[in-house]
Design a protein that fits this description.
By secondary structure, this protein is an alpha+beta fold. It is about 40% helix and about 35% strand. It has four helices and four strands; from the N terminus they run βαββααβα. Strands 2-3-1-4 form a four-stranded antiparallel β-sheet. The longest helix is centred in the first third of the chain and has 20 residues. The radius of gyration is 13 Å and the shape is globular.
C-alpha cells in the first residue's frame, strides 16, 4: 500500500464549489469508509485542499482523482501529488 499526499488548487471560490459540495463530501465519505482516504480538508489561508490517500499504487490514485466531483466539475486548476512514507507519530502507530 502506498500513501499519497494530494493538494488541489481550486480555480473557483468556496461559494462556487458549493453546488457540487454534497457530491464531493459523499465521495470522500465513501473513500473514508473504504479506508482509502486517511485525512482531508481545506488549507484555511489558501484556496486549496490537502488530502492523504492510501492506495495500491499511483494508477489507483489517478483513477480516484479522476472521479473526484470537483475535478469533474472543472474546479481544480492544479493538482500536486507526492508519495509519502510516514514513519513516525501517533497516526503511524495507530495504523500499525
Amino acid at each position: 500500500m502506498s500513501v499519497f499526499v494530494v493538494e488541489f488548487e481550486y480555480n473557483v471560490g468556496r461559494d462556487e464549489r458549493e453546488r457540487v459540495h454534497a457530491d464531493h463530501a459523499a465521495y470522500l465519505k465513501s473513500l473514508t469508509d473504504q479506508g482509502v482516504l486517511l485525512a482531508g480538508g481545506p488549507l484555511p489561508e489558501e484556496n486549496t485542499g490537502l488530502l492523504v490517500y492510501a492506495t495500491e499504487d499511483r494508477t489507483a490514485l489517478d483513477a480516484i482523482l479522476t472521479e473526484e466531483p470537483y475535478a469533474k466539475a472543472g474546479f481544480i486548476a492544479a493538482t500536486r501529488v507526492r508519495e509519502w512514507r510516514p514513519g513516525k507519530g501517533c497516526w503511524v502507530a495507530a495504523r500499525s
